Amino acid sequence: MQKDVRKFGISDKRGRVKTSADPYISGEGLKEPALCSSCKAFYRNKRWDLDPKAYAAMENSPEANWVTCPACQKIAESYPEGIVTLRGEYLWDHEEEIRNILRNEETKAMAKNPLERIIRMDREGDDLVIETTEEKLAEHLGRALHKAHQGELKVSWTEEHSICRVTWERGA
Ligand SMILES: [Zn+2]
């Protein structure tokens, strides 16, 4: 692993071009430990984590810095970076099962990165629309659904807004 003193500088865009368009701080520049009062995620050792015991140990510390984490900000402001649209007759015949898959995948993703969350999951006409805080989660949900229920999957990225659009469709 290369340690670069410019790691947190503006010039560093290695593989993280999309993050630069993200108006929400990912943690860089935050004073540690930073604690999110809404979801109890915390930022320590340069990463976001969810761990109720560790949170409880830090919350009364004078060292604690109170913040709203980027995921909670995106949820509060309805700022999705991933949009998944599901459609087709098969979807509504298996709605419960499909919703469960999506929620389970969100839980698994959050265990690895607490900032990956579903903002909302709503029926809009004949579509089921899921918005996510991170692009990666949208792609992940689409792939998980495709793996479990086949159908047709399309994943596209809009560079300038760093939004990942995923559509999945399956007929009867
Ligand atoms: Zn939060």
Which key phrases capture this entry?
single chain, 172 residues, alpha+beta, five-stranded mixed β-sheet, four-stranded mixed β-sheet, 6 helices, 33% helix, elongated, disordered N terminus, binds zinc ion
Summed up, the domain count is 2
Give the beta-strand count. 9
Largest sheet: 5 strands, mixed
Number of helices: 6
Radius of gyration: 18 Å
* Outline: elongated
Helix content: 25-40%
Short account of what is shown:
The chain is 33% helix and 27% strand. The chain is α+β, with helices and mostly antiparallel strands and 172 residues long. The protein folds into two domains: 17-75, no CATH class; 80-169.
Describe this structure as you would to a colleague:
The protein has helices spanning 17-20, 52-59, 70-76, 89-93, 95-112, 135-149; strands spanning 34-36, 41-44, 47-50, 65-67, 82-87, 118-124, 127-132, 152-158, 163-169. It is built from 6 helices and 9 strands; from the N terminus they run αβββαβαβααββαββ. The protein is elongated and about 60 Å long. Strands 6-7-5-9-8 form a 5-stranded mixed β-sheet. With 172 residues, the protein is of the alpha+beta class. The chain folds into 2 domains: 17-75, no CATH class; 80-169. α5 crosses α6. Bound molecules: zinc ion. Zinc ion binds at residues 36, 38-39, 41, 69, 71-72. The site of zinc ion has 7 residues, from α3.
